[in-house]
DNA sequence: ATGGACTCTTTGTTTCCAGC
DNA sequence: GCTGGAAACAAAGAGTCCAT
């Protein structure tokens, strides 16, 4: 019931609006709170009934930092990884899920919020912290460094000076560094022969400097000893700012041990 | 140093309705 | 009553930008 209430409050009862970022709309004079809540419960109950008829499969959920997996997983215990990690795109998912996180008790203080954010791969300027140093993992990666330099040069050329904009280049390096750290750490957890699939999208969120996320991730994985099996096109999305088609790809890897 | 706020286009979904 | 296409309608929309 609590989960349904949090869902209903955020999505239909409140005046929140969701877009690339969450915003506050005009206050509603009234809302059918109980009705919307019961509807949300109904949907969840139906899902549970339907799933209950299927073959039961054990599932374990860990809440942990993907860059420090040995804390929660046994060495050489994983055969497959299928995931959609963040993209370097200036989206802060702790913001879009903030109200639920508080309502459900996952965040109670600002310190807890910070702790949650610091456990995430850096992917936007709002979760960059002064002590961050994941960028050292890509210090020798020429293309990541070139992109970061281009973003910074573009920022200076355009005369952009806000705190966010000044962090664009750093956030980019921290993103790929964090993903490199994750892939490096993961090697100990994987069983030889394990296969991996990462859905990632190209981005041009930082002053329209193109970031070929899939290509770069595959390149980093290869340098860490992974075999790159494929970079499949998943779909394209139209970037409204540049009117260009942006690729979303599945990077398929194998860890041969 | 670091959490907060705004807004418009594209895109997917639903509704409507003429024609059968 | 059914259906395909058009119009209407929203939309957790892989952005971008300062205020405390």
Q: Which characteristics define this entry?
A:
four-stranded mixed beta sheet; 2 domains; 40% helix; 257 residues; single chain; two-stranded antiparallel ribbon; alpha+beta; DNA-binding
Overall description:
With 257 residues, the chain is of the alpha+beta class. The chain has two domains: 2-52, no CATH class; 69-92 and 122-255, no CATH class. It is built from nine helices and six strands. The protein has helices at residues 2-13, 33-52, 93-96, 98-103, 110-118, 142-158, 163-166, 168-186, 213-223, and strands at residues 16-18, 22-24, 78-83, 190-201, 227-239, 244-255. The strands form two sheets. A four-stranded mixed β-sheet has the order 3-4-6-5, with helices on one face. Helix 1 crosses helix 2 (33-52), helix 6 (142-158) runs antiparallel to helix 8 (168-186) and helix 8 (168-186) packs across helix 9 (213-223). The protein is globular and about 55 Å long. The termini are far apart. The model has no long low-confidence stretch (mean pLDDT 84). The structure holds a DNA duplex (20 and 20 nucleotides).
């Amino acid at each position: 019931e609590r989960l349904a209430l949090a869902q209903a409050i955020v999505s239909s009862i409140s005046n929140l609006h969701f877009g690339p970022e969450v915003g506050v709309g005009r206050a509603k004079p009234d809302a059918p709170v109980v009705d919307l809540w019961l509807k949300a419960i109904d949907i969840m109950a139906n899902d549970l009934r339907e799933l209950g008829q299927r073959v039961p499969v054990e599932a374990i959920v860990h809440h942990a930092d993907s860059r420090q997996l040995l804390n929660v997983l046994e060495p050489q215990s994983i055969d497959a990884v299928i995931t959609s990690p963040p993209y370097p795109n200036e989206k802060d998912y702790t913001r879009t899920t903030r109200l639920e996180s508080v309502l459900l008790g996952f965040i109670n203080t600002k310190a807890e919020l910070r702790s949650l954010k610091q456990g995430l791969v850096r992917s936007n300027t709002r979760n960059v912290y002064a002590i961050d140093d994941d960028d050292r993992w890509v210090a020798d990666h020429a293309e990541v460094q070139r992109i970061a330099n281009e973003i910074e040069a573009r920022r200076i050329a355009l005369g952009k000076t806000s705190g966010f904009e000044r962090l664009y280049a750093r956030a980019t390096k921290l993103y790929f560094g964090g993903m490199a750290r994750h892939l490096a750490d993961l090697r100990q957890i994987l069983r030889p022969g394990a296969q991996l699939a990462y859905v990632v999208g190209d981005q041009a969120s930082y002053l329209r400097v193109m970031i070929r996320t899939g290509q770069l991730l595959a390149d980093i994985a290869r340098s860490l000893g992974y075999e790159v099996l494929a970079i499949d096109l998943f779909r394209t999305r139209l970037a409204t700012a540049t009117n260009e088609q942006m690729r979303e790809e599945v990077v398929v890897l194998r860890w041969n041990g």
